[in-house]
Design a protein that fits this description.
- By secondary structure, the protein is of the alpha/beta class.
- It folds into two domains: about 190 residues, Vaccinia Virus protein VP39 (Rossmann fold, 3-Layer(aba) Sandwich), CATH 3.40.50.150; about 100 residues.
- Helices cover about 25% and strands about 30% of the residues.
- It contains eight helices and 14 strands.
- Helix 2 links the parallel strand 1 and strand 2.
- Helix 5 crosses helix 6.
- The longest helix has 16 residues.
- The two termini are about 35 Å apart.
- The chain binds S-adenosylmethionine (SAM).
- Keywords: Methyltransferase, S-adenosyl-L-methionine, Transferase, tRNA processing.
- It comes from Thermus scotoductus.
Length: about 325
């Protein structure tokens, strides 16, 4: 029931491989405790529902609920909605996206963190089927207006403002805000066109916004003695579309573990890099711990680590970064 992208041989996976059968595909972003997801799955047993949620505690809660209720047509992904949309959903395949009570990020300086921005609506158009839609329900009027404006900027959606369907008012947050006497807002954004890459008048690329590229390995072998201490620059390293930061270095039996934060477009990972003895020399590269996704950004972080090791006199003999 849990989707582990690192273990999938293909991005995006075929719908049949993910769910064991074909069917109308629906994505819910930010499913929280999963009570709405469970109700939706039971009300539409023919639907295939992929949920994305960044909170690990919520994923666990939803996972237990779905298991308890014997629900088989839901897959849960622990991570960002845009990541799921980009890498787990084939282009032109989504019937519906559901967003119930998205985090509103009310402060002006935090608005870039909002999910329903112009860029998201553009990308979404590449994954929705013709006539596919996004349903938004929220208690936050300012975010609601913001989402309407952002979608309108794209010219890719027909938007209808309606009363929220009853089922969308039974989520955990809906019940909380109902008890507080809040008003609810609901809109249906129906795709009428797909975003074209700049300068193009028709869609030539069969996979607009292609999935993130993954790699098998990211390591180097170096000649020299393992240093007694390893001190790495704390300054962020620029990587394509983001940054990497070495947060902490810990000493282990065979060498050092470097807790590394890598932020790329649609993907944020905290992973371990290792500098340790191996049968072929000193290994500097990604640790398998936590099955990280080896992306261009992760490779760039390894390159930065190798550069630092070069600075303390270690010489690269094999470079697989
Ligand atoms: C206010 S809660 C609403 C939860 C649930 N939909 C409900 O109505 O009870 C917002 C949820 O969205 C999740 N979330 C926020 N940003 C997200 C993102 N980019 N991708 C996936 N989940 C996200 C949060 O962890 C949180 O569980």
């Amino acid at each position: 029931m849990l989707v582990r992208p690192a273990l999938l041989p293909l991005w995006p996976p075929r719908v049949k491989d993910l769910f064991g059968r074909e069917g109308p595909l629906v994505l819910e972003v930010g499913f929280g405790d999963g009570r709405f997801t469970a109700e939706l799955a039971k009300a539409h047993p023919e639907w295939l529902i992929l949920g994305a949620e960044v909170s690990a505690a919520s994923v666990l809660r939803a996972y237990r609920r779905l298991k308890r209720e014997g629900i088989g047509n839901v897959r849960l992904y622990h991570g960002q909605g845009p990541f799921a949309l980009r890498n787990l959903v084939p282009p032109g395949s989504l019937r519906r996206v559901i967003v119930n009570f998205p985090d509103p990020w009310p402060k002006k300086r935090h608005q870039a963190k909002r999910l329903l921005r112009e860029d998201f609506f553009r990308k979404l158009s590449t994954r929705l089927v013709e006539g596919g839609d996004l349903l938004l329900t929220t208690d936050h009027e300012e975010y609601f207006r913001f989402a309407l404006e952002e979608a309108a900027k794209t010219g890719l959606y027909r938007v209808e403002v309606r009363d929220p369907p009853e089922a969308h008012l039974r989520t955990k947050y809906a019940l909380k805000w109902k008890a507080a006497g809040r008003t609810f807002f609901h809109a249906v954004f129906t795709k009428v066109a797909v975003a074209l890459p700049e300068g193009q008048t028709r869609l030539a690329d069969p996979t607009p916004w292609p999935p993130i590229r993954r790699y098998e390995v990211a390591h180097a072998l170096l000649r020299g003695e393992l240093p007694k201490e390893l001190t790495l620059a704390k300054a962020p390293v620029a990587i394509p579309g983001g940054v990497a930061v070495f947060l902490e270095v810990a000493r282990g039996e065979e060498g050092f573990y470097v807790l590394t934060h890598v932020e790329e477009e649609d993907l944020t990972q905290d992973l371990l890099l290792e500098v340790r003895r191996s049968a072929h020399g000193l290994y500097a590269g990604v640790s398998r711990f936590g099955s990280p996704l080896i992306t261009e950004g992760v490779k760039e972080a390894v390159r930065a680590l190798v550069r630092e090791l070069g600075g303390v006199g270690l010489e690269v003999v094999q470079d697989h970064t």
